[in-house]
Every structure is written in structure tokens, then in C-alpha cells.
Amino acid sequence: MTLLDAETRTLQPLAWWAHNEYIEHPPYCIDGTPCEHVIDRNTLHYVPDHAVDLYPQDQEMADLGVVSYIGMPLLDTSKNILGHIAIMDTKPLLEKERIAIFELFGERATAEMRRLKTQNEIEEREEELRRKVSGD
Fold this sequence. Notes:
This protein is α+β, with helices and mostly antiparallel strands. 41% of the residues lie in helices and 25% in strands. Strand 3 and strand 4 form a beta hairpin.
């Protein structure tokens, strides 16, 4: 799960699971990745097999041995892209039924991202109001 910086076309991972553990992952540019398809087209992108062949510029996918990919954008209430959520696997993801499950999970992640964004906006407004009331 990531946050989008539209100006730099980078994604900041919020949660990255690899090799059976959560890992810290730096922001990365979406150009030449399947994530670019998700962000630029604002739609679910499903590559059941041979993903690395479709994205030869994505060296990290090759290094990880990625075979399949599914990703979808996370949207705010105005349909602006907040980030995305994706699954990459070293095996083919050929069961289309899993797409529906992934979409449900993505919708739940979207709801949480919206909640966090709203909470941050409220906290910023409260802080601004406190400064005005205290005369700072």
C-alpha cells in the first residue's frame, strides 16, 4: 500500500511485505512499472503471468522474480488518487475470483486512507484554530 506524490510521480510505501516480513522500502518512481498503469489510467491492473516481460524497465520486479501483479488505485471522495495497493507474486495469479476479493480489500484500504486524510485535515484545522485563539 502506497501514497502518491503526483508531482514527482513517486509512490511512498506505507506497508511492504516481502520474504515473509514487513520491510522498509524507499519511495520509488512509477515510470516503467505496472504501478504506472494503475495510476495513469486510474483503474485496476491485472497481469496474471509474465509480468516481468511486460515491464522490462522494472529491475526490482526482475530481482524479486515477480511473475504476476494486481494493483488498484486508492481514491479520495473526489476520485483523486491517494495511492495504490498491489500484490506481486512469484507464481501466476490465474484465479479471476481472487480479483473480487482483492477489490474488496482495496475498498477497505481506500476507506482507511480517506479516514486518515480526514483526521489529519481536522487536526491541522484544530491546531490553526488554537493558534488563532491563543494569539500566536
